[in-house]
Amino acid sequence: MIRGLDTVEQSLDVLLKRQENTSGNIANVNTTGYQAKQLFQSTLKEVQFENHQGGPNVSERQNIGGFTFGNAIDGSYVDSSKGSMKETGRATDFAVNSDGYFTVRMNDGSLAYTRNGNFKLNNQNQYMTQEGYQVIGNNGQAITASNNPAFRIVSIPNEQQLTDAGNGYYTTNQNVQINTNPNVMQGYLEQSNVSMSDEMVTLMQTGREFEANQKVLSSTNETLDKAVNSLGKV
Q1: Boundaries of each Flagellar basal-body/hook protein C-terminal domain copy (predicted)?
Q2: What is the number of other CB atoms lying within 10 angstroms of the CB of residue 33?
């Protein structure tokens, strides 16, 4: 019975993480260049149970079978599918209409990558992100506004191994590849690739699984109550 509580706890932890991930995707449905985050889970390894009640003297070890305590979140990955393009007409808006990411320099000097081309200009007429990060050009320096800016667009060999740095920025330890002929559209922005219909279905499914686990928890609680308050009196 106690193992039943452990199993329900494990399952509720998984559902909570799934719900948080889905809520995060829905919250960013209107975030420019946002790429949906997906989780993957696996079943825990089966544990073998045994007791020492075998044999004629009820003292020998015997196997009584295996038990799986549930599932666990193994990790997450970024959905790299492209969002739709929206025309804005603003000269500081850009969209990568091909594979690749803009390169930006974070406040700590490290490089990050994003599909969000909603830029602005600083006092030096250089492109900056809305958060104030420098946008990098092919020469590795901050890029100055021009009629045909040479953004440093990079391709990531394995996009599913990107690390989410928040707000649509990603980092990676992989060796990135500079795209020498990217298709960058000025006056456009790439929209989020979040599918509201898919996320709502996932949210409803998670809610039903929460309800099922609550019923199991209630049933286990009733069994424990009888074991403590009824059988304990005998």
Answers
A1: 185-229
A2: 24
Residues 33 and 60 in one domain: yes
Regarding whether 209 and 146 lie in a shared domain, the answer is no
Residues in Cβ contact with 124 at an 8 Å cutoff, skipping those fewer than 6 apart: 142, 144
Q: Which domain holds residue 42?
A: 2-78+195-233
Tell whether 53 and 104 lie within a shared domain: no
Query: Residue 27 pLDDT more than 80?
Result: yes
Give the confidence band of 206 by pLDDT, cuts at 50, 70, 90.
very high
Q: Check residue 110 and give its pLDDT.
A: 93
Which residue from 99, 120, 103 is spatially nearest to 112, judged by alpha carbons? 103
pLDDT digits (tens, 9 = 90+) for 139-149: 999 999 988 89
Could you tell me the pTM of the whole model? 0.76
Largest CA distance in the chain: 91
